[in-house]
Amino acid sequence: MLLYILVGLAGMIGALLRYTLSVTTAFWWEGNFPLATLLTNYIGCFLLPFLTLQLPDRMTVSMQKAITTGLIGSFTTFSAFSVDTIVLLETGEAMAAFGYVLLSIAGGLFFIHLGYKRGRAL
């Protein structure tokens, strides 16, 4: 039961961090391109493998799950990526939608690789 509570609490923190990044990005980014979601997912793609490799020797399995599944899982979002892509397509911005999908996939894989390499190096 404690695991569920920890994952839930970490999930609340991750969701709040995601919202904060969205609001902060909106202060300086005025374009239609969903930059906040892209940045959020890049950060999560780096952190998930990095923390997965770094946490086992530092904390309990319950805390690891809270951070990886709860915090990072709620911070990143595939659904927002999907909705953002459809909105770009429906507003006639097919090239931006294509670029967003390409940047999300290629950049996500890049940051997964970077986080994994960095996590293994420490």
From TrEMBL:
Activity regulation information from UniProt: Na(+) is not transported, but it plays an essential structural role and its presence is essential for fluoride channel function.
Residues the record lists as binding Na(+): 73, 76
InterPro entries xrefs: FluC
Residues passing through the membrane, by range: 32-55, 67-89, 95-116
Main location: membrane
Superkingdom, taxonomy of origin: Bacteria
PANTHER family, sorted: FLUORIDE EXPORT PROTEIN 1-RELATED
Function: Fluoride-specific ion channel. Important for reducing fluoride concentration in the cell, thus reducing its toxicity.
Protein's name in the database: Fluoride-specific ion channel FluC
